[in-house]
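If it is no trouble, can you show me the amino acids of a protein and the tokens describing how it folds?
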Amino acid sequence: MTDDTFNALRPRLFAIAYRMLGTRADAEDVVQDAWLRWHGSDRDAIQSAEAWLVTTTTRLAIDRLRSRQTEREAYVGWWLPEPLVELDEHTPERAVELASDVSVAMLWVLERLAPEERAAFLMRQVFDQDYADLAATLGKSEAACRQLVHRAQERVRQERPRFVVSRDTHRDVLTGFMQAAASGDRAAMKTFLAGDVQFVSDGGGKVPSFGRILRGAARIAGLYWWVLDQFPGAVTYRLVRINGEPGLLRYVNGAIESAQSFIVDDGKIVAVYVVRNPDKLANVAALA
């Protein structure tokens, strides 16, 4: 087994680490640590490279998540995952793979799970690992793993978005809202927003954000109007994919200001997740 084996599995390992940790830097660090352990291992004794690397990556991610718990608890305001922004369209298969379980809304829900619950849920429900392998990965009995998965499923079922819309519908609603926001037309914006729409923002203490969840179409439309009023002629929106789903990038004077994800139901936006923390936007391309 060579480095080619590891490189072939790298995307899967990154997918596991990112879903566990929610930031590109932490996920890449975990994958790098797994690579170092792979290099230091007795590969002749490894029966399955994939099983060994998945187990190693999962355990490293759990350890990293535990070590980050204190930081997360001290985080200023709401914590949202670092967005994975795709400026260009890729294959439909790629989009479906991302959108189903790595959306910002889904990771927002997973953030409420304990590290081992999160790992158990992801490995079982997302990566379809059987309970025997899951028990080996987590170092627990199959019965304990079943309990972890059950508890996680209940939490996710209660809190996850229940809305499923087509990609075209999602994009059409977002395009209309973007045009209304770019023109500052509050009445038009409200036609795309559900009456009880919620708005969550993450500034990380680095830039202003709201310390509570805001609700209401008029209020959210007013926020978008206010940004345009504060920076006349300087605000630009760009329709992209964020974590596999249609989303918006907002630029002010050509610099990235936020990455915005949306949940759409019945032709209306029901939730908005806005990442403003500049540390989480460092990998987003500048406005061309």
